[in-house]
Design a protein that fits this description.
By secondary structure, the protein is α+β, with helices and mostly antiparallel strands. The protein contains 4 helices and 8 strands, in the order ββαβββαββαβα. A hairpin with a 4-residue loop joins β6 and β7. Pfam families: A9CJY8-like_N, ACT_7.
């Protein structure tokens, strides 16, 4: 089976932690790219870093590697395989998923290491400029 292609998104993202009862800010809901996770204990947001959020805790300077899909939900091990490559390269990740694909967030300072490790392991990694060109 061929390995997946990943695309590096141009934007820089932030991960925010808010209290579980905090309303979701309208600036998030009007954004073109965001992830929301709510449990009984917390509300987590992944948004473009340019969106100001008043949070309990925030972590900035994350870049996104999108696994180009769509991926079938019955496919096994994609996230684990990519995660293992990045772990071996000592690149920390934060992963979010949609119905059709996975998104690996890596710190901006580790992006080049992540790309190099993925390419060395046989993955194709493209930038937004490559997609446009």
């Amino acid at each position: 089976m061929a390995k997946q292609t990943l695309s590096v998104l141009d934007e820089t993202f932030a991960i925010h932690s808010l209290s579980e009862e905090h309303p979701i800010p309208s600036s998030v809901l009007s954004s073109d790219f965001y992830f929301i996770g709510r449990t009984k204990d917390e509300l987590s947001l992944v948004v473009k870093q340019t969106i100001p959020i008043e949070a309990i805790e925030s972590d900035y300077d994350w870049r996104v590697l999108e696994v180009l899909g769509p991926l079938n939900l019955s496919m096994v091990g994609i996230m684990a395989q990519i995660g293992a490559v990045l772990a071996k390269a000592k690149v920390s990740i934060f992963v979010v998923s949609t119905f059709e694909t996975d998104y690996f967030l890596v710190k901006h300072a580790m992006l080049e290491n992540a790309i190099a490790a993925l390419k060395k392991s046989g993955y194709d990694v493209i930038t937004q400029q490559q997609e446009k060109g």
